[in-house]
Amino acid sequence: MSFSHKILDWYSAHKRKLPWRETRDPYKIWLSEIILQQTRVAQGMPYYHRFLEAFPTVHELAHASEENVLKLWQGLGYYSRARNLHATAQIVVEQFKGEFPTTYEGLKFLKGVGDYTASAIASFCFDVPEPVVDGNVYRVLARYFGVDIPINSPAGIKYFKELAKEVMDTENIRDYNQGIMEFGAIQCAPKKPNCLLCPLNDGCVALKDNKVDSLPVKTNKTKVRIRHFNYLVYLDERNQTIMEKRKGKDIWQNLYQFPLLESEKEIQAEAFQQHFKSEMVLEPFESYYLFNTEPIVHKLSHQHLHTKFWILKTFHNLENGTPWDVVTKFPVPVLIADFIRTLKI
Questions:
Q1: 78, 208, 210, 267 — which has fewest CB within 10 A?
Q2: What is the domain partition of the chain in residue ranges?
Q3: d(CA 166, CA 169)
Q4: Cα distances (angstroms) measured from residue 99 to each of 44, 125, 305
Q5: Integer Cα distance of 185 and 194 in angstroms
Q6: First-to-last CA distance in the chain?
Q7: Which residues of 68-97 are buried (b: 16+ CB within 10 A; e: fewer)?
Q8: Domain 3-214 identical in fold to domain 225-342
């Protein structure tokens, strides 16, 4: 039995029941693929249902405000996915009359849709014989064929795409693509794969050569950047605060936050006013205290944010202040959402 037929047999017996597998609607499948990028199924499932409830079709999503989309996305991270999701919905409605392209090349034209997502939508919806290559597929192919080319190198990306084309099942590409990804997620898992009961174990090079734990190979990760964030949480006598929209192309673009003072190193309580006066002019305050004495470390893919929240009390009413009970309606990073839930006013 061929490699692809073994994958299909395994998938038939072990596939999970997931809502996006019950449809060929490209909108629903595209939505699921964007949500599941860098997100586990268990975490992404509630968001999938939430988005479909709020935006049943691509037209509703296209006509929504970006702020509403970001608020609904809150907690999933990698917010560029949400912005691209919204932009692509508008492209589909405005340029394609609400119909998704039916080809791999046409789908890659859409914002935020790369090789993997285009291959997934094309094969799942339209039976286009295009292989998917995600982290799970890299792992299965690298182990079974014993490939030690780094999967995040240009040579590796090209090699594995060609290998995936060679071994795919073109007659049943929809189930095969979903099957090999499912196989990598459950059977050929990153840690403690079930090699003893694996239907591919008789031909797996990694198992034969005792390299299961060392494949696939990745080149060194990007060095992690340490940043020190100090959020200035103003509170006046009417329990109003200040919220700002985060601009620029840095992390959390277009999300809301409290005024931010970024410092080169951690600021201690006794030195706060000195930093505040020399580096930032916003609103005067009469007293302040540090909400968390130890920095909250928020880890992103290439950045670790060491964060402190400073509560600044003022006796004058803040001009254009935001009532505290309205703050929860803003789309904010999960780091700030957690703080808002914790602070008792």
A1: 210
A2: 3-214, 225-342
A3: 9
A4: 25, 12, 41
A5: 11
A6: 66
A7: ebbbbbbebbebebbbbbbbbbeebbeeee
A8: no
Tens-digit pLDDT string for the chain (345 aa): 799 999 999 999 999 999 999 999 999 999 999 999 888 899 999 999 999 999 999 999 999 999 999 999 999 988 999 999 999 999 999 999 999 999 999 999 899 899 999 999 999 999 999 999 999 999 999 999 999 999 999 999 999 999 999 999 999 999 999 999 999 999 999 999 989 999 999 999 999 999 999 999 998 777 889 999 999 999 999 999 999 998 877 788 899 999 999 989 998 887 887 777 655 556 778 888 999 989 999 998 889 999 999 999 998 888 889 999 999 999 999 999 999 999 987
Read off the pTM.
Answer: 0.85
The class that CATH gives domain 225-342 is alpha beta
The residue type at 26? P
Cα separations in angstroms, 285 against 91, 114, 117, 245, 322: 46, 49, 50, 22, 16
- Which residue is catalytic, options 33, 60, 99, 237? 33
CATH number, domain 3-214: 1.10.340.30
User: Is 33 marked active-site?
Assistant: yes
